[in-house]
Fold these 4 entries.
Entry 1:
Amino acid sequence: KNEVEQSPQNLTAQEGEFITINCSYSVGISALHWLQQHPGGGIVSLFMLSSGKKKHGRLIATINIQEKHSSLHITASHPRDSAVYICAAPSDGSQGNLIFGKGTKLSVKP
Amino acid sequence: NAGVTQTPKFQVLKTGQSMTLQCAQDMNHNSMYWYRQDPGMGLRLIYYSASEGTTDKGEVPNGYNVSRLNKREFSLRLESAAPSQTSVYFCASILNLDSLSYEQYFGPGTRLTVT
């Protein structure tokens, strides 16, 4: 069974700062997910990536399959980026049978 | 599209009571999932349904049953609620983008308290 670790658990930043959240997993995988949980509780899928890098707006996700490590970067952070960011990796080969990290709570101050 | 909907949003039960959490998606997705989220822990998979007519246990299935009523609906039943089942429950479905990638869509969650 895969184990997923995230760091840091909590992160406070000033508006405009560059943010990095890290995720490591124990078992080789085909792809990794990044999700965002809003303060109100809603969860949104941000990225699924299997290699290299993906970019969506100010969010960039990278993955190194050999090192079993992924990072989520936020450029020019804004208070509206305040949320919990969660990474998840497949438990087994089943699509959607994911093991989730405990999340990184990001707070961006104006 | 309403996406993934869940009912109820909040529920308080007494120990031993039963209830069914409802989930529906209008996106024609094949796969649906039930997760629970507890403070200090990541989301954990309770049950999933890869397609209509099939269900499989996830990481924490004890105390729960599920029904995949049709392609749209996937319900989660607590037959005899226990305080340890106090949690926030999320339903999700998957959109296959291609043979290798997919997106998960989550419902808004049901906050359940068992006293």
Note: Chain A touches chain B through 25 residues (CB under 8 Å).
Entry 2:
Amino acid sequence: QKEVEQNSGPLSVPEGAIASLNCTYSDRVSQSFFWYRQYSGKSPELIMSIYSNGDKEDGRFTAQLNKASQYVSLLIRDSQPSDSATYLCAVRYGTSYGKLTFGQGTILTVHP
Amino acid sequence: DAGVIQSPRHEVTEMGQEVTLRCKPISGHDYLFWYRQTMMRGLELLIYFNNNVPIDDSGMPEDRFSAKMPNASFSTLKIQPSEPRDSAVYFCASSLGSQPQHFGDGTRLSIL
């Protein structure tokens, strides 16, 4: 069973701090990795995708991928209260073109 | 460009009734996904289609659930007969090839 594991949290950080969200996955044959943000009562929205080892930065967000350790993370710099949401890690395994496997999500709270 | 459109947004019905959820994917997308989200189980993939053909329905909980995609711009998820444990938020998502999935706003289903 291919799985994606996240710490469900809640993770609480002060405004302006760096929030670090982590995700591990179970299968080495994985090609694509995604982070979705979901506000309460809303649908998941894509915020980052990463396909190769290393870091990818987009504004205040940085995704980090380490395939050898089967680990992907999301860093949010200068956290704002508007970042408070559930963050879902999703993995596309190599043998399931099109299909994503989602983690349970990490609840992030940024307090003023 | 319009996103994924789902209807209805909310549905409340009595146990035993038939429920039909509808989805219009983003124009040009060739993959369509149906998910169910609950607090206990998180986001679960029910079924997905590629070019209108069902590829993987292993997530469909039981025979009471069925899904169709008669053409590239429309899909339905049907529950008959409905049960209280089917209460959840149902999301439809679509994607183009290996690109990330985009989610609709969801249907909040309550079975009394």
Note: The two ends of chain A are 40 Å apart (CA to CA).
Entry 3:
Amino acid sequence: KAGVTQTPRYLIKTRGQQVTLSCSPISGHRSVSWYQQTPGQGLQFLFEYFSETQRNKGNFPGRFSGRQFSNSRSEMNVSTLELGDSALYLCASSLGLARYNEQFFGPGTRLTVL
Amino acid sequence: QQPVQSPQAVILREGEDAVINCSSSKALYSVHWYRQKHGEAPVFLMILLKGGEQKGHEKISASFNEKKQQSSLYLTASQLSYSGTYFCGTEASSGGGADGLTFGKGTHLIIQP
């Protein structure tokens, strides 16, 4: 069974630009969650999508948004990039809602904002 | 609010035991534990739900004290492969899951031969 895949793996952008990250969950998984990981703050929850609906959202500004498609693939968008957005962005998929289920993490997208 | 993990870091010899603690200021519905090795994605270890239900691996045990809003992860007879950063993620009882999981900053565990 293929694992969670994320594209691209590395991304370099400049301040003010916009970026879209993609996540393909494990086949059959209906939930996709997104996390931001930085050395100082650890893993911070962004949002979770289940059956194309945003289930919950972490404490991030509205510049961070996402969506999920009917095949459970998910995208995350960050608009008007800031230097502080530089981080590893991880997505994780689970069979059902993350609150009840094991999450499988992808390798992440390393975003650098210059 | 992030749960607080302790210790922040620990170095052990192979075969020794370790306990990692996770404490929250909020009443908890669940605690999730993950391990992340350097340069790799986090890997699931265990979920502990309010009411006593647990889902996890056989070789790792954990406790969840709902009254104290604390959880502890027990690693017995540690092996070299246990090295990594351990994260606890908590979900508050209030909100019905609307806030998602909040992870602590992690505990760095180094096992030496």
Note: The interface with chain B takes residues 4, 33, 35, 41-45, 47-48, 55-58, 90, 92, 97-108 of chain A (CB under 8 Å).
Entry 4:
Amino acid sequence: ETGVTQTPRHLVMGMTNKKSLKCEQHLGHNAMYWYKQSAKKPLELMFVYSLEERVENNSVPSRFSPECPNSSHLFLHLHTLQPEDSALYLCASSQDAVRNEKLFFGSGTQLSVL
Amino acid sequence: DAKTTQPTSMDCAEGRAANLPCNHSTISGNEYVYWYRQIHSQGPQYIIHGLKNNETNEMASLIITEDRKSSTLILPHATLRDTAVYYCIVSVLGGGGGADGLTFGKGTHLIIQP
């Protein structure tokens, strides 16, 4: 148990659906991250939030929309996804986004887009 | 571009020490060496980090060469549960993330044999 909880654990959606991934951290951290891990590829950083403000957006398509209502919660809203968006989506947190010691990851949401 | 080079895969017998090498010949003076591992279908897990001195914790030991161009992660008594992909990462500010997050490469797939 890392203190970072992601739901749902698995998600299957059609290309016209709208769904949201949820991440919650119980560690009192100030920074949260979304990573994408496609099959056979390294983890890719998608978004970074520090104190609820987005500080990094790595050229992610607009069909992925993050939301950070407070420092403990992070969402990833999905709409009109493509089959190539099927991947493991990982949430992480750290004490802060600059001088932090380490990242704590959730178990991820395995997303399949049909 | 990954700043580190690791073997794609390694085998180790259960109960023996697993030694995982990493080359980081272009490491800067203010960059730390971090190790994470990812067990199948889970998020990455922090293992250990260091700057130039050798480090040890309850999970592993980290040996960094004097010129800091390479390092070795040592799991002293490998168990079947240590089978995972191990990532060696260099990062500035002693940080596990920062506004750029962590850049993961392909890592080493360590297989512990019974």
Note: Chain B touches chain A at residues 2, 34, 36, 41-46, 49, 93-107 (CB under 8 Å).
